[in-house]
Amino acid sequence: MTIVTPSSASTSPVPVDETLAAWVAEIAELTTPDRIVWCTGSTAEFDTLTREMVAQGTLTRLNAEFRPYSFLARSDPSDVARVEQRTFICSEREEDAGPTNNWAAPDEMRATLGGLFAGSMRGRTLYVVPFAMGPLGSPFTRIGVELTDSPYVVASMRIMTRMGSDVLARITPTTEWVRAVHSVGAPLAPGEQDVAWPSNPVKYISHFPETREIWSFGSAYGGNALLAKKSMALRIASVMARDEGWLAEHMLILKATNPKGRSMHIAAAFPSACGKTNFAMLAPTIPGWTIETIGDDIAWLRQGEDGRLRAINPEAGFFGVAPGTGPSTNRNAVDMLWGNSIFTNVALTDDGDAWWEGLTPTPPAHLTDWQGNDWTPASGTPAAHPNSRFTVAAAQCPSISDDWQNPDGVVIDAIIFGGRRTSNVPLVVEARDWDHSVFIGATISSEQTAAAEGTVGSLRRDPFAMLPFCGYNMADYWAHWLSFGRALRGRGRVPRVFQVNWFRKGEDGRFLWPGFGENVRVLEWIMDRVDGEVGAVETPIGYLPLRDGIDTSDLDLADGTMDELFALDDEAWLREADGIESYFAEFGDRVPAELHAQLEVLRSMLRAGAEGS
Ligand code: SAT
Ligand code: MN
């Protein structure tokens, strides 16, 4: 076994903490790689890795004339999304994982994983990837180390996190750090030819919340393999946050400035592939507005010294959905992808550039599709996989905020919850108070997308957009949100909370609201509500805008569209309430009393309304 240590791989030798070195040795003994490389995070290292992957066939270098320093990866067709059925929370007690997670007993899972990881890196390199979530030196920031046999994972982690020697240098005997082990599960016999995208039909994405460990086997897809992201920054971090009194959330963060020069920071939770990246980079259609981006997927929030709610984006890059990203839906994203980007499962043009549905109004006459096959517009299949992705540094985003790496975070003035709902849920509604906010977050449902395996379009509850990402019992998570609000109320200001739905459809099946840049009109109402500048109508589900409360000037909307967008069907909502009651029943007596009380308020207000009408 060859060991490439930091001192031989880097010009600034970094001493390695003994506990870390011992752990790496232990994992190497189990997985038996041919080589160990301690990653420095340097550009030279990234170049070497990508050159090796091009030679191996894992990456295709895109034409530098159109897209310099950029690559296309084609995954195995069976390894294209998160595998929620194979994702486990291995807490000591089953009830601590709760009914929304797959649970496995830690000892049994360790035995299973021990068998799978034994010799799993044979013929490969074990990369040691020290990473920080959050800006180095920030009180929010947490450290982890991922051991992986995938160079694709290393290259992606270099874009998505702060990674390498600077982080390694911060690991001392007193540092707390998360242990993450990843293998594609495809050992190579001596002389065996590797495939372009090694993976294994057997997959385990396992989390041990009590010991803050992650073990991922069999997949190289982002959400299953870049363990800093969903596994560490959400599943493990949500448990740390519960224990330490903060929040780890599936939220974008943006800064909005209105024509009067008033700025606010807003955090917003939407399920995967529901437009978080587009919202975070929104190009406003109303003159005088500016939207700046802090983050597009994950937010860590805590009460600052000043008592206010503050948030950081723990990531350093964007792992966004490519299809649907185009000049009219997300100009900033198109521009940030000028180069230095890794694309996964998009299509390839004949002159060597990346393409996906929505990038241009009409597709090129010929492409190579995400599986490497010839494609023409007559093929009848998508050229890019619906969950194809781009990976790019946040710093390349034209709308990135100057504050995106502020070690103290930014003050959050409002929180938005959203989902993808064809009916019932209005364009925007404001929660009455914190308990009602938690009730709204806890009961959100959304139609499923291609970001995870499952039936696209089927309605499922996705509380706080955290269904796949909460590392403990969801009912305890609701209780944590309730107590977090009490702490905020005690010392600072509690942010106002809103629910939005960009996806409501009319009877003809078409979206009622134009979305994208026009969503600034909803932000305008939200900011005016926070500042107490506009009134609202109280309804059973919260405060709705007054008639004409949303500025629709210059919008080409059919007559009655705004009424449809805000239509409240009491009978349908009474059925929603019944659905919520059965949903709560799945959590037994762990559901906080405040949420049962909110359900009763909803019901009695609906009944009063139904009788009155
Ligand atoms: O694949 S990821 O989990 O990283 C992205 C997402 O589904 O939100
Ligand atoms: Mn996400």
UniProtKB/TrEMBL annotation:
Cofactor note: Binds 1 Mn(2+) ion per subunit.
Cross-referenced Gene3D superfamilies: 3.90.228.20, Phosphoenolpyruvate Carboxykinase, domain 1, Phosphoenolpyruvate Carboxykinase, domain 2
Main subcellular localisation: cytoplasm
The keyword Lyase is assigned to this record: yes
Pathway(s) served: Carbohydrate biosynthesis; gluconeogenesis
Cellular component terms per the entry's GO annotation: cytosol
Cofactor: Mn(2+)
Catalytic class of the enzyme: lyase
Biological function: Catalyzes the conversion of oxaloacetate (OAA) to phosphoenolpyruvate (PEP), the rate-limiting step in the metabolic pathway that produces glucose from lactate and other precursors derived from the citric acid cycle.
Protein name: Phosphoenolpyruvate carboxykinase [GTP]
